[in-house]
Design goal:
single chain, alpha/beta, Aspartate Aminotransferase, domain 1, Aspartate Aminotransferase, domain 2, 2 domains, seven-stranded mixed sheet, about 15% strand, globular, disordered C terminus
Length: about 400
């Protein structure tokens, strides 16, 4: 006999993780594969960050600093806020979940965009609250007018995602400010900026500025993407006193580990080098976009480190079929069906070689060419030194 579980579990969306490189190699009998499915950085942590991690390993018999004082102080200094306005999380996902715990109850609602980050619907399901999912607009942006109209007396949390995942659509700062002007000041708004670093628009930093003057706004950032620290899980939020108190009330005492704190802090000391890597990713995003345009492959213009591709177009094929054919060629991208974008593919931006491999593979798939697996040398990254 099994244990008795909460009926809320049945309402929770199931997250379907993407395939690993090892999965694809085994399934298709390949010698090599490139992974462009998880929006990770193609670059390893900076050498300075790796050195700081190695130095900190000797202290792992001690608990981490539960308050993350040094890292919070560095983040506060970066954004011109008080340390008391910064909260750390085990990735920005952690803070999203904590916001749901702190704010949602049965009978209340969460307003969020759709399709968007798959974690958002988990919050109301876990709390016995109701999700109000608002479709994104034709450019893959959060539809702010429709979201504002969805806010009512039951709303206890609104989540915006900018740039939006999985579409890459970007909302201008002025549009977000107008949205916030329409929202009651006692309704908390979470602005998820996980892909902020890859935005080229000049207003990209104004989310934090808004949080300084709007007590109901918290802005989330992460070290997973631009800093290449997905494996250590570290993110943060910047918000007003009420927001911080709410998150701290439900946060476990040691929710961020020592190595993550050390790595993030060292990353902040070397922002110029990280920015050079970000600029390379942006250049590759533009190059891949131009190549897709040249092939006649439709996609949603992106301000993130991925592109949502619509391989169907006017061809007699579909996203899932193309996804499988790409896998057979050793190119791992994300099937949009798992992200609420059936018929499309989310393709992360990798190294120039990885991107070339994807472009050649999708061109071959759409042309109906015979399957050609990529050489094993490429999987080991032996095509040349990793750009810094």
């Amino acid at each position: 006999m099994g244990i008795i579980t909460s009926p809320r579990l049945a309402a929770m969306p199931h997250y379907e993780p993407g395939l690993t490189t090892a999965d694809v190699l085994r399934r298709y009998g390949l010698d090599a594969a490139v992974k462009l499915a998880s929006n990770e950085s193609p670059f390893p942590p900076l050498p300075q960050v790796e050195a700081a991690i190695r130095e900190a390993i000797g202290g792992l018999n001690r608990y981490p600093d539960g308050a993350g004082r040094a890292l919070r102080a560095a983040i506060a200094d970066l954004h011109g806020v008080d340390t008391s306005q910064v909260v750390l999380g085990n990735g920005s996902c952690d803070i999203i979940l904590l916001a749901g715990q702190a704010l949602l109850d049965p009978g209340t609602t969460l307003v969020h965009p759709e399709p968007s980050f798959s974690l958002y619907p988990h919050l109301p399901a876990a709390a016995g609250a109701e999700a109000v999912a608002v479709p994104v607009d034709e450019l893959g942006r959060n539809d702010l007018d429709a979201m504002a109209a969805a806010v009512d007396e039951r709303t206890r949390l609104v989540i915006l995602c900018n740039p939006n995942n999985p579409t890459g659509g970007y909302m201008a700062a002025g549009a977000i400010e107008r949205f916030l002007d329409q929202i009651p000041e006692d309704v908390p708004v979470l602005l998820d900026e996980a892909y902020h670093d890859f935005v080229t628009e000049l207003d990209r930093g104004r989310g934090i500025s808004m949080a300084r003057s709007r007590p109901n706004l918290m802005v989330l950032r992460t070290f997973s993407k631009a800093h290449g620290l997905c494996g250590l899980r570290i993110g943060y939020g910047v918000g007003g006193e009420t927001w911080i108190r709410a998150i701290e009330a439900v946060r476990q005492p040691f929710n961020t580990n020592t190595l993550a704190q050390v790595a993030a802090l060292e990353g902040l000391r070397n922002l110029a080098e990280t920015e050079r890597r970000v600029q390379e990713t942006i250049r590759e995003r533009e190059r891949v976009s131009a190549a897709l345009t040249g092939m006649g492959v439709a996609f949603t213009p992106s301000q993130a480190n991925f592109i949502l591709v619509s391989p169907d177009g006017d061809r007699a094929t579909d996203g899932t079929g193309v996804h499988e054919r790409l896998l057979a060629r050793g190119v791992i991208v994300r099937d949009g069906a798992a992200l609420g974008c059936a018929g499309r593919l989310r393709v992360s931006i990798g190294t120039p070689h990885e991107n070339d491999t994807f472009l050649a593979a999708i061109a071959g798939v759409l042309a109906g060419d015979e399957n050609t697996a990529i050489p094993a040398v490429h999987a080991a990254g032996q095509e040349g030194p990793t750009p810094q």
